[in-house]
Design a protein that fits this description.
This protein is mainly alpha-helical. The chain is 49% helix and 6% strand. The chain has a five-stranded antiparallel β-sheet with strand order 1-2-3-5-4, sandwiched between helices. The chain has a three-stranded antiparallel β-sheet with strand order 6-8-9. Helix 8 runs antiparallel to helix 10 and helix 20 packs parallel to helix 22.
């Protein structure tokens, strides 16, 4: 790697040194920056050609440099002759102006070390291309070494030289005198240009019809640079010291031969004995062998043979050569037309540009890119021609690499992006938008291409808006997401809302529907779907467009609509649109199909969620926790169960009373929300902690004795106080008759009570919730049975009834009633006041007797609620109870009617 870097460094240093030594001090360097050595040309390939740029305008040029050190071997007078000859050729070239002659940008400048002048950008000389590589840089430029001429380039190049000779012979009355491959330059576009007028001869009688030229005698002792190339000279130059325009035509014939024979002329000339060589050549030309011309194309072979004739009058002149069928090639004619475009009017140009797309595919890429493309882009300054030129430029761009597009096409195309007139420019660009977005650099897309699309959406022409909306989906995948989200979508929405054209509005909706897949879900839900409700018109096409966007969003696997949005926004909007009178039957059916699909999915999703939550609740209740407080909570009826018990035998879930609940499906954990999963995890963690605690075993209750009575019992004091208050309340006034509506549900969870009072069970949660929101059963323990043993009449020997505390025991253990654990009643000890309330749960009520209010056990619940008065409720008549003590269903329905209206 290091050796390669050193080699590169030495090469750059050598080239820089060569340029510096050759050009340093020359006035050309004041205005032009001299670059790399690229080629050689001129008489004997003595001129080194460098690329360069003009410092003021950055215009690309070619710098021709002749280093005087190359002729140090000659005597001073010979040096002066060589320099004078070279200076004459450049000065003559500078005076002549023609498309077929090399254009001089800066005249010849002389310094002590070199001669230099600047021309249009140059690729190489024809001699370099044909394999003559003298005075070229080392290493050899690969583009020259590998350069091969295409047929169309050869044909048109020879045609250009013929046209150049026609100008010299007919217009200037001049003979070139040294026409050879060294003096034919290929410019950067591939055009062939004539230079090297060192030995040119002007007519002595330019005003006459038959010009006469004075030819100098050949001087063999002069340096080679002071003599023309003898291999391309006509025989009359040497043998008869005469010349005319036909002499240049002979040189053209030798050039044609060289082009088709790898740079070899017709005859090799011995420069030391030139007269003998030309005499022998003259004999050979008299009867030229067919093998000499066998590599020349057949359609031009006869003309070349005529050009090589020893008789000047037989040779075709330049005008005649330009008209031979060999040059009637479609490619050559096309290139010739480009060179004469400046002479055409707009109508002729437009017709030519319209037919050009048929010709471009037949031409080599190098010719199209470097020869035709510059001519096309030069027309961009004429706005009227841009619609005709632009399709051809974009057609060429398709065949270019990205680097060629950026380097050769993009600089000329950028100003055209900003043109708004004529409107056809926008249409053409929109049709080729995929090409532009593929090959244009991202920064240029953002600065030039997308603004053009935005202008098209805001254009006053409906046709442009429609085309733009139709084309946008075809290249939407090439637009970066921020530009689409922040710039493109808002303009599409604006075009839909503000236009008065139905076609634009429908195409806007279709465009949005097609690019939905390139948007994210929440942008569609937050920006696109709410926008649909803002559309004012209700034409069937618009409604179907709205339906299409809803359907695409709903059914797309990446998007989808949440059930909340379906329920609150999407479905209400679609339902309201579906009944529009403008819709026909098929359109209405399309609406209903989408609505049914949405309803089905919403139902399935929400039902799945509810089933998961229900399953989670069931799993939580099934966890066996030994904590009595938690057990009491676990045994409490869920709200759904309470509702089932209140509203009759058929529960809220649709199952018959007394039947087992259907097993809940296992939750689909993938569809649980994050909050539900967090709550489930916390509940499972808490349940695990509770399971790990030591179970609280119930302690055996010892019989009450006189020693226990001595201790202060706060619970007994509280119960005594409440029992006294209840007794006074019952004794102070007569109990009213049973009120209608005091009956509470007789569902299975309420026991065999008629108004919510039950001696062993206390006041149930369901009844209390209906009358003033009392404390639930889980927060209000039933102390009714304990209160019976501590009544105000003082029967101390009565065994206390502790059955109400049975619910505190876990259900999986053998239940031992507190009645069995408490002290037994003394024999014969009766409590007539208490017995009238019937503490046993199966006590029957006598027919026709007013039922008492229920035992003292209810006093705790009634005193706890200040809005509850015992006088407002009494036992219903015994006639309303059946044999088992349960109210008939008809009476239940009446009571429910009274309760709930």
């Amino acid at each position: 790697m290091e050796s390669m870097l050193n080699k590169l460094k030495s090469t750059v240093t050598k080239v820089t040194a060569d340029v510096t030594s050759a050009v340093m001090g020359n006035p050309v360097t004041r205005e032009f920056e001299v670059g790399r050595h690229i080629a050689s040309g001129g008489p004997g390939l003595c001129w080194r050609i460098y690329n360069g740029t003009k410092k003021s305008t950055k215009q690309e040029v070619a710098v021709f440099v002749f280093d005087k050190k190359t002729i140090d071997k000659y005597q001073k007078f010979e040096k002066d002759q060589i320099v004078d000859s070279l200076k004459k050729g450049v000065q003559q070239l500078t005076r002549l102006r023609h498309p077929r002659l090399l254009t001089v940008q800066h005249p010849l400048e002389e310094s002590r070390d070199c001669l230099a002048f600047c021309t249009e950008p140059v690729f190489a000389s024809l001699a370099n291309v044909l394999g003559q590589w003298e005075n070229l840089p080392s290493p050899m430029p690969s583009d020259i070494k590998e350069y091969k001429l295409y047929d169309v380039e050869t044909k048109y190049g020879l045609l250009q030289i013929s046209e150049g000779l026609s100008f010299l012979h007919g217009g200037v009355k001049m003979v070139h005198g040294n026409l050879c491959p060294e003096n034919i330059i290929l410019n950067k576009s591939g055009a062939w240009k004539i230079m090297g007028f060192d030995f040119s001869i002007s007519a002595t009688n330019p005003s006459e019809a038959e010009p006469k030229y004075t030819c100098k005698e050949w001087e063999p002792h002069l340096p080679p640079l002071c003599l023309p190339n003898p291999e391309y000279l006509a025989p009359e130059y040497i043998l008869s010291v005469s010349c005319d325009s036909a002499s240049d035509m002979y040189s053209l014939g030798v050039i044609v031969h060289a082009v088709f024979n790898e740079g070899r002329p017709v005859f090799q000339v011995n420069k030391h004995d030139i007269f003998k060589s030309f005499s022998r050549q003259l004999d050979q030309l008299s009867s030229i062998s067919p093998t000499v011309l066998n590599k020349i194309p057949e359609e031009v072979r006869e003309h070349v043979k005529m050009l090589l004739s020893i008789t000047p009058n037989v040779r075709p002149d330049a005008d005649q050569m330009t008209k031979i069928p060999f040059f009637d090639d479609v490619g050559a004619v096309t290139l010739q037309y480009f060179d004469s475009l400046f002479q055409r009017d707009n109508l002729q140009k437009s017709q030519f540009y319209k037919s050009l797309p048929k010709v471009l595919p037949k031409l080599p890429k190098r010719v199209v890119v470097y020869r035709i493309l510059p001519a096309l882009t030069s027309e961009f300054v004429n706005p009227d021609m841009v619609p005709f030129v632009l399709p051809n430029v974009l057609l060429i761009a398709e065949e270019c690499t990205k680097d060629e597009y950026v380097r050769l096409i993009m600089p000329d195309l950028t100003p055209v992006f900003k043109q708004q007139e004529p409107v056809q420019i926008l249409l053409i660009f929109l049709q080729k938008m995929d090409l532009l977005l593929t090959k244009t650099p991202p920064e240029e897309i953002k600065n030039s291409v997308l603004p053009m699309v935005y202008r098209a959406l805001e254009a006053p022409s409906v046709q442009i808006q429609e085309l733009c909306l139709n084309i946008i989906p075809t290249f939407a995948n090439l637009i970066d997401y921020p530009s689409m989200k922040n710039s493109l979508i808002p303009r599409v929405k604006s075009a839909c809302l503000q236009t008065s054209s139905l076609a634009v509005r429908v195409n806007s909706l279709v465009c949005l529907g097609k690019i939905l897949e390139y948007l994210d879900k929440w942008f569609v839900i937050d920006e696109i779907l709410p926008f649909l409700q803002q559309i004012p018109s209700r034409e069937p096409a618009v409604l179907m467009g709205i339906l299409g966007i809803y359907k695409c969003t709903f059914s797309h696997k990446k998007l989808g609509i949440p059930k909340e949005h379906l329920a609150t926004k999407s479905l209400p909007h679609l339902v309201s649109l579906s009944i529009d009178n403008n819709l026909n039957l098929n359109q209405f059916n399309s609406f209903m199909a989408v609505i049914r699909d949405m309803l089905s999915r919403m139902e399935a999703e929400h039902k799945t969620k509810l089933e998961q939550l229900h399953s989670m609740q069931e799993q939580q209740r099934s966890i066996n926790i030994s904590n009595p407080g938690s057990q009491s909570e676990a045994t409490t009826s869920p709200p759904g169960k309470q509702i089932d018990d209140i509203f009759g035998s058929t529960g809220a879930n649709g199952r018959e009373n007394g039947s087992a609940a259907a097993p809940a499906p296992q939750p689909n954990r993938m569809s649980l929300t994050l909050e539900e999963k967090q709550r489930l995890a916390k509940e499972q963690e808490q349940a695990a902690k509770l399971r790990n605690q030591q179970p609280l075993a119930p302690q055996s209750v010892k019989a009450a004795n006189s020693s226990n009575a001595k201790a202060k019992d706060l619970t007994s004091s509280l119960l005594n106080s409440m029992t006294s208050l209840s007794a006074m309340s019952l004794a102070s006034a007569a109990r009213p008759a049973a009120a209608r509506g005091a009956v509470v549900s007789t569902g299975p969870m309420m026991g065999s009570t008629s108004n919510g009072f039950n001696a062993p069970m206390g006041f149930q949660a369901g009844a209390m919730g209906l009358y003033g929101g009392m404390a639930s059963a889980t927060s209000t323990p039933n102390f009714g049975a304990l209160a019976q043993s501590q009544g105000p009449i003082g029967q101390a020997n009565k065994a206390p009834d502790l059955s109400a505390l049975d619910s505190l025991f876990p259900p999986n253990q053998n239940k031992v009633t507190l009645n069995q654990m408490g002290p037994m009643a003394a024999p014969g000890a009766n409590a007539p006041w208490l017995n009238q309330f019937g503490s046993a749960p199966n006590a029957r009520l006598t027919a026709g007797a007013a039922a008492p209010m229920g035992g003292v056990s209810s006093g705790f619940g009634m005193q706890a609620n200040p809005f509850f008065s015992p006088q407002n409720f009494s036992q219903p008549a015994a006639a309303n109870l059946n044999q088992s003590g349960v109210k008939h269903s008809a009476s239940v329905n009446n009571d429910l009617k009274d309760l709930f209206g």
